[in-house]
Design goal:
CATH class of the largest domain: Mainly Alpha
Number of domains: 2
Structural class: mainly alpha
Largest sheet: none
Number of helices: 8
CATH architecture of the largest domain: Orthogonal Bundle
Length: 180
Amino acid sequence: MKEMNADASGPTPEFVQLLTASQSAMYAFIVSLLGGVNDAHDVLQEANMKLCRKCSEYDPNQPFLRWAYAFARFEVMACRKRSQRSRLVLDDALLETFADEVEESSDDADRRLKVLETCMERMTPPQRELIAARYGRGEAVQDIASRLSRSENAMAALFYRLRKLLADCVQSVLGNEVRA
C-alpha cells in the first residue's frame, strides 16, 4: 500500500482524494449537528484545514470518514462555543449522542449502498441498463417505454419488480449478515 501520510510538503494526492470524496458526507454530518446550514460551510472549511494539518496522523488502515467526523465534531463544538449567545444551543452531551447516532446511520448507509451494488451485479445486463437509465440518468419511464416499444404501464410495472428484486436482495443479504 502506498504511503498516504504527508511529509513537510503537505497532504499526499491520495489523502486529498479521500478528503475530497468525503466532502458531501462531512457537510451533511456538520449540518445535522448544527441543526441547519448556517455556519456549516465555515465549520467544514475549518475541519478541512485541521485535517490537512494533521494528515500525517491518519492511519490508512482505518476508515477515513470516521477519522474526519471526529474533526468535524470538534469544529461544531468550537462553533457552538463561539455562538453561545444563541438561546437554542444543544448541550455537549446531547450533541455527542446525536453525533454518534448520525455516524452510525452513515455507516449503515455506506453498508447498504455496498450491498445494493452487490445486488445490482447479480442482475442481468439488460436489467442493470434499465436501472441505470431510470435512476442513474433520470430518464422518464415514458421515454424508456417509447424507446423499447413498450407501454408506459408495462415499464412502470417492470420498474416496480426491479425495485422489489433489489430491495429483497438487500434485505436478504443484510439479514444474513445479522444472523452470521
